[in-house]
Amino acid sequence: VPEEEILSEAANVAPVSPGWRRWVAVSLLRGTPLAKVISTMVAEGIDEADAARLCASVFIDPVFEAAEWANGQLKKLESVLAMRQQMRALAPEPAEVERRAGVGREEFLADYYAANRPVLLEDVCDDWRALERWTPEYLTQILGHQEVEVMAGREADALYERNAGEHRNHMPFDEYVAKILATEWSNDLYLVANNKLLESEVASPLWEDISFDERYLLADERRNRTFLWFGPAGTVTPMHHDIMNILFHQISGSKRFTLVSPLETHCVSNSVGVYSDVDPLAPDLARFPRYARAHPIQVTVNAGETLFVPVGWWHHVLALDLSVSVSTTSFRFPNTVSWSNPKQIL
Ligand SMILES: O=C(O)CCC(=O)C(=O)O
Questions:
Q1: Are 111 and 117 in contact (CB under 8 A)?
Q2: DSSP string spanning 20-45?
Q3: Over residues 291-297, mean pLDDT
Q4: Which ligand 1 atom sits nearest the alpha carbon of residue 227?
Q5: Which end of the chain is more exposed for a tag (fewer CB within 10 A), N or C?
């Protein structure tokens, strides 16, 4: 249907739901061709003339003009990010996360923290007794029947991370350990950060087994800014970004991180909050074509190694083994960032 013809029909607004009106507006703002928008509606059972009239009325709505203006502002910011990536690609840039040891405070600040660049640090956990001690048996000996918060029933819900509230469960620690030891590979049950376990009195002895690297961290605030992750092989933390810088210590087992730069945020389909809709291990490029323009970097973090995950970097994490990790946000450098995140509308 030619566009002029549609516009002339605009006076008779189609009798379709506000949901469709919103969908049309979002599709047009995303640059979906008009013919495709109409044919999609027709395929959903809407009369073609009604679909065309609806599109026409959206086009001439001043609210849509305002949305187009806001979209233009957003596209400008996206083009700045794309320009930065394009320029960066001109200089030889390591395609992998650097592996370093002996990085001093000033170097870490200048080359990684302030530069917002990930790095794998090989020497941070050198004197951590936790590396030998924190077997499931030892942790059970210390934590016993202490009630812990775990995420359960994840495999039945594709959006388990966004719906974390619905998966929160409590069980005695020893019961949790028995369950995860009985599985070889599973993403169903996982003790994730924010469980407050390390803050509990009963966990006090565990603090003797880890030390805070004073080059990068402040020990004073560590109690409520340090988190335990403990789960079987096969746990997946879907792609998201954190709102702070993170130092991620791997105590036992290995985890594979897939990292995407914040400069490629417009490529990861961040439709809501801090979450990406893309599974970087099996990206659906038909649904998320822009992901083809991203440059994901994979890094495996083995026991005894520490990954610096800079604020805003997208990451997806797969546990390759039964795994214990400790992450902290307790840096000695400023670590508060102001974020604005998209809300779900469709
Ligand atoms: O270890 C994991 O499963 C996820 C870690 C993570 O995403 C984080 O610390 O932000």
A1: yes
A2: HHHHHHHHHHTT--HHHHHHHHHHTT
A3: 94
A4: 9
A5: C
Q: Taking the mean position of all CA atoms in its chain, how far away is CA 336?
A: 18
Write down the pTM of the prediction. 0.90
Residue 222 is predicted with a pLDDT of 85
- Helix 34-43 vs helix 48-59: angle between axes, to the nearest 10 degrees? 140
Task: Take residue 278 and report the two structure tokens written for it.
Answer: 């893309």
Nearest atom within ligand 1 for CA of residue 242: 10
Q: For position 13, what pLDDT does the model report?
A: 60
Report pLDDT for 194: 79
**Percentage above 70 pLDDT, the chain:** 95
pLDDT in tens, 109-136: 999 999 999 999 999 999 999 999 999 9
Nearest CA to ligand 1 atom 1: 317
Closest ligand 1 atom to Cα of 229: 1
CA of 318 to the centre of ligand 1 (A): 9
Distance between CA atoms of residues 340 and 54, nearest Å: 32
Tokens of 15: 């009798």
Residue 307 phi/psi, 5-degree rounding, is -110, 130
Which residue's entry shows tokens 């933390």?
Answer: 237
How far, in Å, CA of 238 to CA of 151, rounded? 14
70-87 residue pLDDT tens: 999 999 999 999 999 889
Determine the Cα–Cα distance for residues 275 and 288; give it in Å rounded to an integer.
14
How many Å apart are CA 224 and CA 226, to the nearest integer?
6
Task: Tell me if 229 sits within 8 A of 323, measured CB to CB.
Answer: yes
Q: Which atom of ligand 1 is nearest to the CA of 246?
A: 9
Say yes or no to pLDDT of 18 above 90: no
Measured in angstroms, how far is the CA atom of residue 241 from the centroid of ligand 1? 10
Query: Going by C-beta distance under 8 Å and a sequence separation of 6 or more, which residues neighbour residue 6?
Result: 34, 52, 53, 55, 56, 59
Lining ligand 1 with CB less than 6 A are 229, 235, 237, 242, 246, 248, 255, 315, 317, 325, 327
